[in-house]
Design goal:
Blueprint lengths: L3 H7 L14 H6 L6 H30 L16 H20 L4 H21 L3 H9 L5 H11 L4 H24 L3 H10 L1 H14 L13 H12 L11
Helix pairs in contact: 1-8, 3-4, 3-7, 3-8, 3-10, 4-6, 5-7, 7-8, 8-9, 8-10
Protein name: Urease accessory protein UreF
Pfam families: UreF
GO molecular function: nickel cation binding
Length: about 250
């Protein structure tokens, strides 16, 4: 059964700022690439198998980095990490951060990931206080969202699969929710699409977990050039114009 941490992080009501990101759907809609439930399903499936797989793999790989420091009560109630522990943790997070950057060629998508990570960090610190979060922030003050999710799941004692499932689900649930606002689609039909994506999502989770124990450089790196280009265009071509979503 899923742990509470991954369920809370996947909840649309979690105050992490995910509601301001459409995962590239706003740009796809503006270009006429998504206009119906059927075309939305194709978009979500493609996003799940590319950007979703990358995010899931890095979230899963982040879990064991922080798993040695379980969350229980406030941070001052646990023995602090030694300097050696902190150095190892920060080094591993730094490797994952660099490899995830390399797999995100669009500056706009990198910014969206870090913006969501930063937005989630404050709520995470209140719910799961841990020195591991300090180690992650020491690598970059605006951590990539998948790394933060993985770190929290590790602190909460959840397995890598739950972190992978959380971010894989968010990779499609966010754009699906945006589709209702952007296109006025039937929310019941949109939720049915998410359910139909279940087998594909579980396949992505299994691949992410299988790869998570490999060196950072060997983690999945499927490309999504159209998503990269649309993410950049969404920022560059709509600068100063009214947009519903930041990405």
């Amino acid at each position: 059964m899923p742990g509470l941490a991954s369920l809370v992080l996947a909840d649309a009501r979690f105050p992490g700022g995910g509601h301001v990101h459409s995962g590239g759907l706003e740009e796809a809609v503006s270009r006429g690439l998504v206009s119906s439930v059927d075309s939305l399903e194709g978009f979500l499936l493609g996003r799940l198998r590319t950007a979703g797989l990358v995010a899931a793999a890095f979230a899963a790989a982040s879990v064991p980095v922080s798993a040695h420091c379980p969350s229980s009560g406030t941070s001052h109630s646990r023995p602090p990490l030694t300097c050696d522990d902190a150095d190892v943790t920060r080094s591993r997070f730094a490797e994952l951060d660099a490899e995830l950057e390399a797999r995100t060629p669009s500056a706009a998508q990198r910014e969206a990931s870090r913006a969501q990570g930063r937005g989630t960090l404050r709520a995470v610190r209140a719910a799961w206080p841990s020195p591991v979060l300090d180690d992650l922030v020491a690598v970059h003050p605006r951590p990539h969202h998948p790394l933060l999710v993985g770190a929290v799941c590790g602190v909460a004692g959840e397995p890598p699969g739950e972190a992978a499932r959380c971010v894989a689900y968010l990779a499609v649930s966010g754009p699906a929710s945006a589709a209702v606002r952007l296109l006025g689609l039937d929310p019941f039909a949109v939720n049915a699409v998410l359910v139909r994506l279940g087998p594909a999502l579980e396949s992505v989770v299994a691949e992410a977990v299988s790869a998570a124990g490999a060196p950072s450089s060997d983690l999945p790196a499927p490309g999504a050039p159209v998503l990269d280009l649309m993410a950049q265009a969404h920022v560059d071509q709509h600068r100063g114009r009214l947009r519903l979503f930041a990405s």
